[in-house]
């Protein structure tokens, strides 16, 4: 089964989507030596990524037209993960905008290596590819809402003022944390 979206980091790690339906997902992972930590076991970051991706796919399995973004994730590691791994994700509950999920990682002997819970927000799928992004803009509140401003790079005077404001804020914060002058 193919992933429905291009996720370069997932491709780099070599995850393989096994199933995704009815609030559940499974992803297989054969870690490479470059994915290990200094103890020669799968790095915790790779394990967390595996569970994040399988939980997202469990959430998306009931609403495939939408994307999801991770809001929160809590992970517990039970034993070192080694060799071929299988992660199972499950949608526990959903609202119109949120998904509450869990995931587990099992080694080839079906021993539980890690468990996670995660909260995801459903978001519209965004266009990807050339021309799909817009330059970043800064906004400033007005009495009629938010006024869009051009990027700082297009306004050197505003960029200098912004830098000055940052320096002043830094000085105020630094002085606020200083003990009073004894003199």
What does this structure look like?
This protein is of the alpha+beta class and 183 residues long. Helices cover 24% and strands 36% of the residues.
Topology of this structure?
Blueprint: H1 8-13, E1 16-21, E2 24-29, H2 44-60, E3 66-77, E4 85-94, E5 98-106, E6 112-124, E7 138-142, E8 145-149, H3 156-176
Antiparallel strand pairs: 1-2, 2-4, 3-6, 4-5, 5-6, 7-8
**How large, in whole angstroms, is the Cα Rg?**
23 Å
CA(first)-CA(last) distance:
73 Å
Please provide the count of β strands. 8
Mean pLDDT: 84
Number of helices: 3
Q: Reading side by side through the largest sheet, how are the strands ordered?
A: 1-2-4-5-6-3
Order of helices and strands: HEEHEEEEEEH
Name the structural class.
Answer: alpha+beta
Summarize the amount of helix as a percent range.
10-25%
Largest sheet: 6 strands, antiparallel
Beta-strand percentage? 35-45%
Low-confidence stretches: 169-176
Shape: globular
Concise account of the structure shown:
Helices cover 24% and strands 36% of the residues.
């Amino acid at each position: 089964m193919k992933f429905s979206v291009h996720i370069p980091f997932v491709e780099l790690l070599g995850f393989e989507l096994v199933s995704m339906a009815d609030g559940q997902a499974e992803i297989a992972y054969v870690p490479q030596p470059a994915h290990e930590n200094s103890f020669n076991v799968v790095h915790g970051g790779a394990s967390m990524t595996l569970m994040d991706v399988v939980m997202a796919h469990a959430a998306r399995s009931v609403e495939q037209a939408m994307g999801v973004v991770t809001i929160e994730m809590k992970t517990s590691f039970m034993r070192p993960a080694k060799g071929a791994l299988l992660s199972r994700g499950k949608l526990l509950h959903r609202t119109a905008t949120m998904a509450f999920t869990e995931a587990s990682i099992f080694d080839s002997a079906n021993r539980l290596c890690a468990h996670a819970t995660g909260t995801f927000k459903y978001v519209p799928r965004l266009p990807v590819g050339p021309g799909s992004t817009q330059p970043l803009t800064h906004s400033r509140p007005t009495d009629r809402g938010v006024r869009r401003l051009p990027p700082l790079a297009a306004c050197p005077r505003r960029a200098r003022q912004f830098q000055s404001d940052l320096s002043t804020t830094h000085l105020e914060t630094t002085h606020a944390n200083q003990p009073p002058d004894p003199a």
